Amino acid sequence: MSQVMELVVFQLKTGVNHATFLQANEQVNDWVKTQPGFVSRTLTHNEAVWYDVVFWQDETSAHSAAKQFMHDLCSSDFMAMIEPSSVEMSHSMVQTTCPAPNFNGCEFSTFRAKEGVSDEQLIAASLKMEQEFLKTESGFIHHTLLKGDHGAWADTVFTHSKSAAEQICQNFMSNPACLEYLQLIEDGSASLTFWSRAH
Description:
single chain, 199 residues, alpha+beta, Alpha-Beta Plaits, 2 domains, eight-stranded antiparallel barrel, 6 helices, 33% strand, globular
C-alpha cells in the first residue's frame, strides 16, 4: 500500500512572530507522533507562505488524523496564529521515493502531464532524470514524485540548502534526461518554488 503525503499550505496572521509560532508547533509535533500510521512531518516556509508536509502509511491514517487534529488541537496556540482563510489541504499518493538524510532546502513544483502521457511514462522519466541528473548534482539529497487528484502531480527535490536547490534548477535544462521529462509536462501548467527548512 502506498504512503500518502498530506500537504497543508497556509499563512500566519499579521504580527505573529515566527519564533513564537515554531514554539507552539512543538505541541503539534508531540501530538502527531501519537497518531496511527504517522511516518514523518516537516514544516517549511517561503517568505509569507508555510508548507506543513506530513507523510502517512496509508490514506486511511491520513484522513483519520486530519479529523482527530480538529478535535484535539482546533483551539491550540498553533491554530490561533494561522489565518483561517489561507489554509489549503491536499492528500497525494507517493509514487516514488528513497531514504534521505536531513535536509535544509527543497524545490517544490506542481504540474500536469500532457494529454496521452501515462502514469508509467511519467514515473519512468522521473526515475531516469533522478538517476542521470539529480544524483550527480552537488547538494542533492532526496527526490519524490507525488500524484494528486484530477491529474495533478508534484515533484519535490530535497537539498542541503535552498541555494543548492536553486543551482540544481539552473542546471536542469542542460541535461538530456531532464529535457525528456520536461517534454511530458503540459505547457504552462508547472509552478516552481524554492524553500528553506523552518523546523
